Amino acid sequence: MKKETLTAIIFGIFLGGVVAFFIINKTKEIELNKNKVIAPKNNLNNNKNLPDNTQMQPLEITSPQDGLIIDQNSTSIVGKVEKDTLLVIQSPIKDTTFFAAKSDFKISFPLALGENVIKIVAYPRNKTFRPQEKDLKIYFIDSEL
Amino acid sequence: MKKTLLISLLVTWSLSCLAISTYGQTETASQSASPTTTSSAEESDIKVLKEKVANKVSEIRQKNNKAISGFVISNKSSFITLKTYENEEFEVELDDTLTKYFKISGTQKKEIEADVIEKDDYIIVTGVLIDKKITANSIFVDEGFLVETGKVTEIDKENYSIKIVTTAKDNFTLDIENSTKQSMLNIKTNVTELAGFSKIKEGDTVHFVVKQLASNKNNSYSAVKILIIPQEYFLK
Which residue ranges traverse the bilayer (chain A) (predicted)? Predict the structure, then answer.
């Protein structure tokens, strides 16, 4: 067999492979596009009316960390929450309620000597959302640090 | 042959001279340095090193310093066993020289002896926590509180008590005492105001604080304070 013939055969097999790969991929893509809609269109539109938990800013406490030991009789509670949420912060020595005008909030909170159990509850403005809770245990121990 | 021997000898002699001169130089240099300067410089270096080590130790100690709290199950001479509200048991290792003991009363703390701590005392332990064992730096005898929230499911007007189910589906019975601080959110002004027992309705949300008890099978507590969010707030 001549050298030119062998080269032509190899080139032909390679080109055939490339064309086959392209055709298979394109066919799969077309099939996937055809089968994309599983639920009826009406149902998809109705879901837009339901509250979506992923759209709401969840209650996050960035500071202080749970279990923190500090040597001051107050701390700043800093966090994020959905705008216009009613926040209730309660501990054995203090109750605070306020509306978060912005999504970020910061409030100074007094601490008793020893253990301070603080519960933070967020009631979103949209009443269909569930309230969210966070618990903190902060230790005000002046001789430790 | 003689020539080679002569060259070898010369090389050996030259190398010996070089070695001796180098040795001599070192000796001279060390002798010429002032002993007072060296001593003070070394002392300063040691002081800096000591400070660095102390800072590092303090930093590691602060980083590893944790606090746990719970009721004393047993107090033996070298260790205390405590159980947290979440029913976790911890072994508290005591050190005769390191561990300090205090009792917290209001805003004051008083040093106490280790043997004063008894079964069912609520204690806070600070120290290095590894797994379920804490090496105690300090132990504070304190009062433990629970802060919870839930919905009122039942009101007993004769006994001045309310039943509450929390979001975690725990049931509590709260006795409303004369000493219980009661407040309610005014849904028009969004400000909390003082309230009475008669204002509480089934379906209201209540935030409450109770004193923890060492043993409480019925989850029945005397309320320290309650904050009521009327159900009307959620209908606005």
Answer: 6-24
